[in-house]
Automatic annotation (TrEMBL):
EC id: 1.14.11.17
Name of the molecule in the record: Taurine dioxygenase
Bias kind Polar residues: ranges: 288-307
GO cellular component: cytoplasm
Family: Belongs to the TfdA dioxygenase family.
TauD/TfdA-like domain span: 11-276
Pfam families recorded: TauD
UniProt cofactor(s): Fe(2+)
Any one GO molecular-function label of the UniProt entry: taurine dioxygenase activity
Keywords for the protein's UniProt record, in alphabetical order: Dioxygenase, Iron, Metal-binding, Oxidoreductase
Region (Disordered): 287-307
């Protein structure tokens, strides 16, 4: 009887707190359960994984890879998918750049557990993706601020004030804004989320978190608190800068990271495709779960129950 030995994957760290990469791992074919388990374990440890020379050449390859980690969401609750491919969202510089820190789709009650990005068209320079560890940020907080953050809840919405100077907006920004907000979502999430697999605590805020539900505090005071907490997430030691190459895929844990795509490529074409994996309802330190205030996300994604 032949014994099949699972090859141990070797991920090289990109930083002490977040990020690891592996080169040449074939992702376009079906993966063995053992390989999937190793990738999931590495994701829990490193938060963001970079697969270089991964031979993920088509949308179908990307969808197949992402499906190993759970049911997929639709491309987006309001934005159109790649034609004929309901799980694939085009992230195209022609439609503007996501140059603000955010966690994907946190304005719904069941945000994706993880996101995959695949390189399609890359600029000659720039166009990186920055990914930050909200777990590292939480650990950095002084005890008094950490204990305070544990008690807070934030309202996340897709219909917020896009306060950006008109001269810096993309040409079709108004049309994109109308598409993005055609359904109004609001959800109350804990500011500190407990990761369902690792038990780690991370700051769960970002671009869609607009105001804190704190009795006795004004909107101005709430924004100041968010600003202070967000500054811990974007400390350089909590951030990995992913330089894109052709035929590259990135997988990151959406439950305990934020990301940012700097607009630093002088209008050159830049296109990635995104596929996201359905997630659970966030839970705070006190055991309470997030609640939907406006908008029904059931047609966007099923809710995963983590045992």
């Amino acid at each position: 009887m032949t014994t099949v030995t699972e090859t141990k994957l070797e991920f090289a760290k990109l930083g002490s707190r977040i990020g690891a990469e592996i080169r040449g791992l074939e992702l376009s074919a079906d993966l063995s359960p053992g390989t999937v388990a190793q990738i999931r374990e590495a994701l829990s440890v490193h938060k963001a994984l970079v697969f270089r020379e991964a031979n993920v050449l088509t949308d179908e390859d990307q969808v197949r890879f992402a499906s190993h980690f759970g049911p997929l969401t639709n491309a987006h609750p309001t934005v159109a998918s790649v034609e004929g491919k309901p799980a694939v969202l085009p992230v195209d510089s022609e439609n503007g750049s996501a140059n603000n820190w955010h966690t994907d789709v946190t304005f719904v009650v069941n945000p994706p557990q993880a996101s995959t990005l695949r390189s399609i068209t890359l600029p000659e320079y720039g166009g990186e993706t920055l990914i930050a560890s909200s777990a590292g940020a939480y650990r950095d907080l002084p005890d008094e601020l950490r204990n305070f953050a544990d008690t807070l809840w934030a309202i996340h919405t897709n219909d917020y004030d896009y306060s950006r100077p008109k001269n810096l907006e993309h040409a079709n920004a108004e049309e994109r804004r109308k598409e993005f907000t055609r359904i109004h979502f609001e959800t109350a999430h804990p500011v500190v989320r407990v990761h369902p697999l690792t038990g780690e605590r991370g700051l769960f805020i970002g671009g869609f978190a607009q105001r804190l539900r704190i009795v006795g505090l004004s909107n101005t005071e709430s924004k100041d608190i968010l600003r202070i907490l967000q500054a811990y997430i974007t400390r350089p030691e909590n951030v990995v800068r992913v330089n894109w190459e052709p035929n590259q895929l990135v997988l990151f844990d959406n439950r305990i990271t934020q990301h940012y795509a700097p607009d630093n490529y002088d209008g050159q074409p830049r296109k990635l495709n995104r596929v996201t994996i359905a997630g659970d309802v966030p839970v705070g330190v006190d055991g309470r779960s997030s609640t939907s205030i406006k908008g029904d996300s059931s047609t966007y994604s099923e809710t995963v129950v983590v045992n």
